[in-house]
Design goal:
Number of strands of chain A: 14
Order of helices and strands of chain A: HHEEEEHEHEEEHHEHEHEHEEE
Shape of chain A: globular
Largest interface: A-B, 122 and 122 residues
CATH superfamily of the largest domain in chain A: PurM-like C-terminal domain
Strand content of chain A: 15-25%
Oligomer: homodimer
Number of domains of chain A: 2
CATH architecture of the largest domain in chain A: Alpha-Beta Complex
Strand order of the largest sheet of chain A: 9-11-8-12-10-13-14
Number of helices of chain A: 9
Radius of gyration of chain A: 21 Å
CATH class of the largest domain in chain A: Alpha Beta
Distance between the termini of chain A: 50 Å
Helix content of chain A: 25-40%
Chain lengths: 354, 354
């Protein structure tokens, strides 16, 4: 019998010294500067290709005459259940929203479950029910999956990785690169609820009422914009790293300056109070049901009206504009009028919020 | 500002008592009887839909005139590197092979990395290089990904979840349900190398030479069959649970009996020796570069010649046939001639081999 060829591990020598950071830190998963560094030094050089280089929430695939979007996210949120959702709602809505940000109608999901030995069966059952309910609400079907179990002490209850496929039904090419001077920046609603809901439950804090995560599928407000034929340039949901990180990434990719007005950004009183207590800035806190839309300024009024027509865009505001200025810069005009740079965070603000 | 609707966790009461198994055990991830139970009691009822109910290695999606395959797998192998491959080669080849088993040409992959705080950057870099190399060998592009970091002690170095999209370019509908009496069962090569490679390195055993995993992308032998226009009914790779579990699942889904001849099944001497030492049966040991093909018996000779024409099918053998007999039964005629039932294992044979 001939000996078949197999694939072996890569055996070359690592050209990057990794002197400054020989090991992975929690902050490498925070969505800030170190996450960007990990992508730049390890993943982008290994996998460089046009889709990955788009720095989008997902990839666009061309199959015959059809255009599809494809995306994935791993969920490691702690605790598994929190006010307003759980790891199952997050895993479905997060991937649904990434497809929507590509301008795709979300259609099919996969799910990979990594379960720690000893997890209560009822917990797993409850997460599966949440996923079923969220998938139905978003109009997607979970069509394929996988389950792995790891030894007690080698996991943390449950990790879920979803991937999604959607169909680009609108004649648009949404991408960070498409953002241009003259665009208005629209925000779909108030900021900071998801991160502060997680942090409050972790710290055992109850305010006047619990802060509920904004975790939701953004099908309604996104379809409202796209069905109306608006010339949207880019959509981006405001997850890890919040509004500030999303705007910084887009400003770098599109080589533009983005100017934001803090007084236009809605933040619930309870969220503002909790942020002050923990010394956090709501502009960096993760959301799971909020996005920004970049549209030509002339379309801004119509776009806002369309967003506000959906319950999930009811609090939409125009928060700023794109200017030629300094490529890669994001500025914030504060409540008292002074303008400052809104930078990418280096460290980890809130670990494991999604 | 109106209060947007959000998605909350499922709050109903669990109707399944889970009395016999209130917690998840390692064996629930083993690919045997308990894995089937987890699917039957938790995942299939929650997500029931025609694609998931096909019990296939992936789902078939229809988009316009195109047919696509979509699949996912999570990888938690321990150790991360082993003779013949690593978690990166496994994560790429495993998903590539699942797409091939659907009769699809593998095209695009996503990858979600769950990294334990403290993992050496060079380890992550090395896995990324292996993935790049494996993706190139299989002709697929990694187009989208995600990275999460969990606290030290809440993971195990690195878990990788890949999902894949392929295109069904051949006019075939491969599925376990399509298997029928009169089909020949062809095996693409020798069994047991992946599982025994992992076990040997874990136990620190060296035989005359190390047992190398058979981890490989099955593009060559699968394309050989499909390009020739052969009327293939079903393909199945022999991963977790090995040949015995794959045949049992197919016999149940297709409602047929499958009769196998042990003397036709190739097993390397070193693998057979290691299996004897550990009290394992190579028919239940995981492979990562082997599959069975079900073809009409009249096509069997031609199919074998096609398989043997590719290095990864060089050891192909006809190992049995499908008969009407008892629905769901798999029998094995042993080397000394006696026929016995080849059952699904209840427990965990080798934890975390993929």
């Amino acid at each position: 019998m001939a000996e078949p060829a197999t694939t072996s591990s890569f055996t070359g020598t690592c050209p990057v010294p990794f002197r400054d950071y020989p090991h992975v830190l929690m902050a490498h998963g925070g969505g800030g500067r170190l996450t960007q560094q990990l992508l730049r030094d390890i993943f982008l050089p290994a996998f460089a290709n046009p889709q990955l280089d788009e720095a989008h929430d997902g990839a666009v695939l061309e199959v015959g005459a059809e255009r599809l979007a494809f995306t994935t996210d791993s969920y490691v949120v702690r605790p598994l259940f929190f006010p307003g959702g759980d790891i199952g709602t997050l895993a479905v809505n997060g991937t649904v929203n990434d497809l929507l940000m590509c301008g795709a109608r979300p259609r099919w999901l996969s799910a990979g479950f990594i379960i720690e030995e000893g997890l209560a069966m009822e917990t797993l059952w409850r997460v599966a029910q949440s996923m079923r309910q969220s998938a139905a609400a978003a109009g997607v079907t979970l069509v394929t999956g996988d389950t792995k179990v790891v030894d007690k002490g080698k996991g943390d209850g449950l990790f879920v990785t979803t991937a999604g496929v959607g169909v680009l039904e609108w004649p648009l090419h949404l991408a960070p690169r498409a953002v241009q001077p003259g665009d208005a920046v629209l925000l779909s609603g108030d900021l900071g609820r998801h991160g502060m809901a997680i942090l409050s439950v972790r710290e055992g804090l109850t305010f006047e009422g619990p802060i509920e995560s904004d975790c939701a599928p953004l099908v309604g407000p996104v379809r409202a914009l796209l069905d109306a034929g608006l010339q949207v340039h880019c959509l981006r949901d405001l997850t890890r790293g919040g509004l500030a990180s999303a705007l910084n990434e887009i400003a770098v990719t599109a080589q533009v300056q983005i100017d934001i007005d803090e007084s236009a950004i809605p933040v619930q009183e309870a969220v503002r109070g909790a942020c002050e207590m923990f010394g956090l800035d709501p502009l960096y806190v993760a959301n799971e049901g909020r996005f920004v839309a970049f549209v030509p300024a002339t379309e801004s009024g119509r776009a806002l009206a369309l967003l506000r027509g959906d319950p999930l865009g009811a609090g939409a505001q125009r928060i700023g504009q794109v200017v030629a200025g300094s490529a890669g810069l994001v500025t914030l005009r504060g409540r008292i009028g002074a303008q400052r740079i809104l930078d990418l965070l280096s460290g980890e603000q809130l670990p494991r919020i999604c």
